[in-house]
Amino acid sequence: TLAKSGITPFGFFEFAWIGVPLTIATIVFMMFIGKYFLPKHEITDAGEVEQEVSADEISNDPKKQLYSGLILLGVIIAMIAGDFLKKFGINLPLSMVAVIGAMLCVLTGCLKEKQAYTSIDWVTIFLFAGMMPVAEALDKSGAGQMIANAVLGVMGSDPSPYFATAVLFILSCVMTQFMSNTASSALLAPIGIAIAKGMGADPHAVLMAIGVAASCAFGTPVGTPPNTLVLGPGQYKFMDYVKAGVPLIVVCFIVSIIIIPMVWPFFPGK
Predict the structure, then answer these.
(1) Smallest Cα–Cα separation from 175: which of 166, 163, 183, 164?
(2) Which long-range contacts (CB under 8 A, 24 or more apart) does 34-43 make?
(3) What pTM does this model have?
(4) Residue 152: how many CA atoms within 13 Å on its side-chain side?
(5) Degrees (nearest 5) of the Cα angle 226, 231, 234?
(6) What pLDDT digit, counting tens, does each position of 60-82 carry?
(7) How far apart are CA 71 and CA 220, in angstroms?
(8) What's the rounded Cα separation, in Å, for the pair 171 and 153?
């Protein structure tokens, strides 16, 4: 979205500036506070769990483990090099690096062709591919600008970029509890860019807030696939996600509103 709008995209490891503080904050919160919001259940059928683990056919082949580790290291190095090579006008797309890494896993025997194929999350791919045209349509048709103007109108004639970022964070966070995080980001990104431009601010902070909020799908069991996967084994109920997830979202909101404007200033150079 940034590249299509003529704005410098985020670097691959640039997300670590907010990702690392958020990781630390969420771990500390869940260790000392969040765990008390969760129900205490005991696993009664250990044999069933062991059967599921053994069914995964986990390989202990040292040769495959070595190849897998080297491929992962190579992909990481290539992604780092991609950011560096951009300075010299050489484009090394992250998607190409990822595909090459996946192909090497198959060619070296770390994965079988069927395993590689079945591991692809086709729902996410088609959902993301379907939502990108919707986001572009919002931008090209002027609907995104119309929504942005409406939001700016509610905020007043001279809105604070902090307030605008907070509003978009909350909106993205609410949407992602019931729909895909990629869809939430794709829909709100052009609106965020329009709002930032309307305030004369750099859109990077606004878009990072939207992206982070779209990943805070902790409040419902349907917000993200991992939430749904642990619903049964953890014997959780819908309200368990609300009790533990909402306070965690508040923690992420506070950390994001503090850190994001520090790393990506609204008005660089001023």
Answers:
(1) 183
(2) 34/244, 34/247, 34/248, 37/240, 37/243, 37/244, 37/247, 38/236, 38/240, 38/243, 38/244, 39/235, 39/236, 39/237, 39/240, 41/234, 41/235
(3) 0.67
(4) 19
(5) 110
(6) 788 888 988 999 899 888 877 87
(7) 36
(8) 16
